[in-house]
Structure formats: C-alpha cells, structure tokens
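FIELD: query
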Amino acid sequence: MTQRIRQWDYQLEIGQSAELGLPTDAVSPVAAQGQLGLGGTYYAANNNNSNPVAASFRQGFLRYHFQKEPNTLRVGRFEFFDGQEIVPKNSTLLWVQTNRVGHRLIGNFGFSNGQRSFDGIEGKLGGKTWNLTAMGGRATQGVFNMNANPELNVDVQYLAYTHVLAKQRVIVRAFGLGYHDGRTGLTKTDNRSAAARALDHKNIRIGTFGGNLLAAVPAGHTTVDFLLWGAGQVGSWGVQDHSAGAIAVEGGLRFDKVKTTPWVRGGYLRSTGDNNATDNKHNTFFQVLPTPRIYARFPFYNSMNSTDSFVQLIEKPSKRVDLRSDLHFLKLTSASDFWYQGGGAFDNKVFGYTGRPANNHSSFSSLYDISADITLTKQLSLGTYYAHAFGKSVVSAIYPTEGGANYGYFELNYRLQKVLGGHSH
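FIELD: result
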C-alpha cells in the first residue's frame, strides 16, 4: 500500500511466504555435494520443515520530498538496489542498467520467496542529468528463510554519483560501498581448512570501490550498446587481509528496423579467486548482498571466483512478448578456490554463501537457456524459463555419475492495484 500526501509518501508491504511439499531427501549426505537444488535449500533454511509458512513485514517507510522534487529522504524498512539510482529516458540504457548493472552488489534477492530488505535511511539529491544517493542500513533475514522479520548483524553503507551525458546516450557512475558482518559465531565460507575457519571468530569488514560506463548510440538502422563495470575491494575477512576485484565488459547490436528488433549481445566477466589457502590473505571477490539470479538465471553459480563469457539474443515478436536466450561458458578463475553459490547473508544460522572445492580444476560448465515473458493483461503476466547446464571437470569431480542439470519454471503474476484517495497510488 502506498500513498502520497503533499510532500510525504509512505509504503507498507506485508508478505505471506510459503513453500509446500519440500523434498526431505534433497540434501546430500556427502558434504561436498551439499543441497541438491532450491528444494533442498529451502528445506535446510527452515529447520528441515517441508511446509514452511510465515508472514513478514517486507517494507514500511516514510519519505519526504523536498521542494526540488528529485531530492528525497527516506527512513524505515525498504528494498534497495545498487546501480539504479537514476532512470534513463533512453530505453536501451534502461534495459542494460536494469539487467546488467542493477543488483550486482546490493539487491532484494527478488527471485527468492523470503526476499531481502534493509532497515535504514536513504537520501537522494539530483537534477535532470545527475544523482547523488547515500544509504545506510541493516539487512533483514529472509531470502530462503520464510521469516523475513528479524534484522541481522549485517550492515551496509553506500554512496554513488551518477551522471547522464551525450543527450541521454551515456551514463557514468562512481560508487563506494562499506560492508560489515558481525555474525562471528558462524563459519565463513572460503578455501581455508575447516579447522582454520572454525577458529576465525572476527568480523568481516570490506570496502568496495568502483564504477561503470554505459552507452547506447544509434548507428544507421541499428543501435550499438556498450558496458564497462569494475570494482576493487580492500578490508578484512575475519583474521585474513582481504583484497579482490572484478571487471565486466559487454557490448551489443540491435537491429531497430527489423520487425522483432533482434538484439545480439556478448560479454565477459572476470572476478578474482584465492590461489593460496594458507597465506593469511583472502583474494576471492566478495559479491556482498546481490540478487544473483539476474546474472545467473540458472543460479547454480554466482560472480565469485568466476570467469563468464557469454552471448545472448533478445527479441520482441510483439508488444506483449519478450524472448531471450543466453549461452554461457563458465570457468573458475582459481582452481585452488571454491565453486561459490548464493547471494549473501540471510539468517543467523548459515553464512549465506556456500562453496564446493574445485579440486584443482577450473573448467566449470557451459549453460544454455531460453525464456519468454508475456503480458496477458494490465494485471496478469506469464513467465517461462528453461536452462540446461553441461558440467565440466569441476562438476564431474563432485558429481561423478551425473554432470548435467536442468532448471525450468512457469510463473503467473497478478497485480492488484487500488487507488487510495486523490494523492494515492
């Protein structure tokens, strides 16, 4: 529920999360194999309950709008996404920013049932072509845990400056992100021995500094797009010194005069991994609190210790239908590190990221997927997705009898909207 009253607006959101009939045998007794899919993950995160149900206070905030309308101050419980501080008028830039920049380091973990919010404060200053956003908050429980009400001893501080240039054809952003995890009773996920990790009860404190450049330029009957994103990290990973980084480069060509506007894109991501488990240094890039499925639509991997080369095709056969297909070639950056999964802290029982040993292999997997998103009415939409992963040596060393995997779903969404008075929406 949202309402605008003069210079104030508020939003209240309550969610009812439930998983029914979760499998009881989807967590392998072999430690390295771990949870066998999302069913096992939900089962383990909810105290081995096959039918977890909980009501949660997802969002509840009050926001003040200053006389200069882009300037706002918000306090309460809210969702937050890095990389989306400004809404570009250019539709190509909007798609690239939403799907290839937003949520990389901070997100609501939107594909999960419990999701993630922050209790904190956010301020925005801006003009027609620029935005300055600052946020500080503590993460809530949720994601795979149905009870998304409690806070965690995990907090973030974020500052970003974004500028639109060249007649809405270029966006540049610089950001800084502070992260603190005070859940010292949990065992961290990294490539040290189990004994060494069990003795590490110090906090995690990491600073991430980076930026991105987006461009979308018309070229005859086509549009050319380009993305450059990078981040460096320093800090402490418990008792270890932490330094890491990641870079992503992408580009595309859209044929605007063709009826279905086919859009061919390709890209490359490389994030650092740790090459030495005993040198008291942690060099695995830390993804903080992202929404991992935006960048791994079949979420059996994430952007930690990852090298990802991909091509994708996007088409729009009609105004109501969007098609997309990706082909990814995945490697682990360091064969001495882990195959990482997950999207960060979500309760006080587990660390949030899981890792499986690489066993001195780096060849990880190839992945093919296809999706269709269909708008049926103003309130009703249908989403479909299918993916197949072709596991390579990293996977076969852990799952010797079956290296491939399939993932798919149908999703029906209905949006109920009711106007509350003349200033409401």
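FIELD: remark
The chain has four helices and 20 strands.
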